[in-house]
Write a structure and sequence with these properties.
Length: 89
């Protein structure tokens, strides 16, 4: 397992700045996909970076796996219901 707590201790609030930067880089790759200019390796790299910083955020903000899992279940159920009702946009 990776030592996310050490990274968060070392970087402190920079964790959030780096996360925002990584999300922006993924955003850029996604817009390229929409424009028909997808580069799969770059997309995979940015996707992986975002997964990593999501773990940093979880550690930095003291979010438990159980809390995250509960919210994922809640949001997935809500999305499924909205799709079924034809109101998901």
């Amino acid at each position: 397992m990776y030592h996310y707590s050490k990274i968060c201790d070392d970087l402190k609030e920079k964790v959030l700045v780096i996360a925002i930067e990584e999300f922006c880089e993924l955003n850029q790759q996604l817009t390229k996909c929409l424009r028909g200019k997808m580069h799969k390796e770059r997309l995979l790299e940015e996707y992986a970076d975002c997964l990593i910083v999501m773990e940093w955020i979880k550690e930095y903000c003291n979010l438990s796996d159980e809390e995250v899992s509960n919210w994922l279940d809640k949001k997935n159920r809500r999305n499924a219901k909205r799709i079924q009702e034809g109101v998901f946009r």
